[in-house]
């Protein structure tokens, strides 16, 4: 190349500009796809309709939320506090911008939104029908249900330790108590518990629990630690990080798959008769709540259960094999022979009287005795075979079929009757599923999205207005296309300020146009360091 030849253009700047823009920009297609994905996530997080308050339905077992914005927790226990809970729909439609705490399901609860419990906050219920206007919204000062029960969960606190639940910091799994008793009864009111707190252990030191009662447990733990170290050396710190994120339950705590419900020590102490079921069919062995060894409690219980179980086993064996018992068989056989051995009042039999030549008037023949089998014998009430209740604080863990093993005799049923959760599995109210959740499961589908709703709204418009809207859209498209093309030809990304200036000019908004132009001028100076939020790729 000679010195007189013009220098070749350097495309590096343009390539660099496009490359830099592509890292932080997206095309219109990518933007729509991302919006559809976000809408799909929203449908998954909020799958139910939220246009109807459950208060008119009365008390239900339903998902309840505490609004800490409308009912701030008290600064001290001496400060007056009026707890309140709202239903799923009101948590979104009426308190969507507030600080909410999900309490999950609560039994026999009526929504407090729009009631006197939230009167100081001034937040109305937008979903209930206003009696004054005949329309939804603006409902305040409604009478709150007196039967609602509240606990510390409505202050954002959980467990026996009273900690505030932070989903970003909380590690491990918390478990909800079946809730035999309310706080007023000495129970917990369906509180959520840490495994360590159920066992009376400090949360930060559950791995240091004394395992002298089970020496093999410590050995297994050491072997597990060695395996984790070897695995970490091979695969990095992934497993170690997972262990930190989700720590194992403390030793002695049942595996999650082994139980279906739990009854915390507070509710057990409120109704101590339930202690007798520990370790019986439908119940796991008792877990002490004072940090002591579970072996001591269950060993003490076994000393009482084994004789009862042994007696029951013998009794059951007799009932199952009543025909094989010699004495009972012979006795029944004797009573089954009226022709030769029918007894009379004086103890003589017809056979003896005939042998001695004594005439005895015919007496009515007694009905033959039928051997008693296990099916015919009355069942022994189960509570008679239960062990005495231990004085130790314990937590009970139940299996799925525990209700089938509760004694329901005339003496025990009055204890069960106030607790419906012990008699049958409860139904949880769920709002109707939204149509968009039915039709928009696919993240890439436009069904139920804002885009499809816009198209649906356009199709339902008045014909004249629809035509005007389409014409306006075509006008914007015809003007916007060359505007974006000029940036594409120069290899530059389109910034937010450029778009603002374009639409300000299109609207004829001089003030907005000058402001956007000034902002765009201040940002000039190359791709690197211009500080613009780019939106390129057109």
Automatic annotation (TrEMBL):
Q: Where is the composition biased (Pro residues)?
A: 1-10
| Polar residues: compositionally biased ranges | 14-23
Q: Does the keyword Plastid apply?
A: no
Cite the record's Basic and acidic residues compositional bias ranges: 219-244, 529-538
Q: Which GO terms describe its molecular function?
A: ubiquitin protein ligase activity; zinc ion binding
Q: What keywords were assigned to this record?
A: Metal-binding, Zinc, Zinc-finger
User: What SMART domains does the database record attribute to this sequence?
Assistant: ZnF_UBR1
| Cited Pfam families | zf-UBR
The stretches annotated as zinc fingers (UBR-type) lie at 51-130
Q: What does the entry list under GO cellular component?
A: cytoplasm
- Which PROSITE patterns does the UniProt record give? ZF_UBR
Q: Tell me the segments the record calls region Disordered.
A: 1-23, 216-256, 304-350, 427-449, 515-538
* PANTHER family recorded: E3 UBIQUITIN-PROTEIN LIGASE UBR7, E3 UBIQUITIN-PROTEIN LIGASE UBR7-RELATED
What is the protein name for this chain? UBR-type domain-containing protein
